[in-house]
Amino acid sequence: MIILDYSDKRPIYEQIVDKMQILIANGALEPDEKLPSVRSLAVELSINPNTIQRAYSELERSGFIYSVKGRGNFVRADEHLKEKRQAKILESLRKQVISCREQGITREKILHCVDNVYQDGRDSGRTSMPREEREEGQKGAVPND
After folding, report:
1. Which of 123, 105, 2 shows the shortest CA–CA distance to 52?
2. End-to-end alpha-carbon separation of the chain, Å?
């Protein structure tokens, strides 16, 4: 269900929040579905229960889940959750585009990168630079001896 990335610089609870939001927004977790208990998810992920509690509190605060005293946490049935998640992602993308522009990356290179990701269906780690420019840059490269 949730795989943590220990090389990620974000706190563990933020990673859990993001993964749960994705699962909820994509419909993998149905409205009113009971989430794993804090204790069981902590054992499953081998992390402190307080971390799970913090993630659940953040999910509740942002409207993705609700809690029922003595029964647990449940997925909120809200049609706008997917829109909220998409708006958050688009805002992040907007900031990245501004950063790219400030670094002198052209609009064409940005759009080429986006097109590559959509064509591949995933981020394969390839550079966003068009092949012609990569090859041109390699012509002048000095081989390592």
Report:
1. 2
2. 47
Using a 10 angstrom Cβ sphere, with 0-12 exposed, 13-18 middle and 19 or more buried, the burial of residue 109 is middle
**Residue 20 burial by CB count (10 A; 0-12/13-18/19+): exposed, middle or buried?**
buried
- Give 71-130 pLDDT, tens digit per residue: 999 999 777 777 777 888 899 999 999 999 999 999 999 999 999 988 886 544 444 444
**Overall pTM > 0.70:** no
Question: Which residue pairs from 59-63 have beta carbons closer than 8 angstroms and sit at least 24 positions apart in sequence?
Answer: 59/17, 59/20, 59/21, 62/17, 62/21
- Judge residue 69's burial from the number of C-beta atoms within 10 Å of its C-beta, 0-12 exposed, 13-18 middle, 19 or more buried: exposed
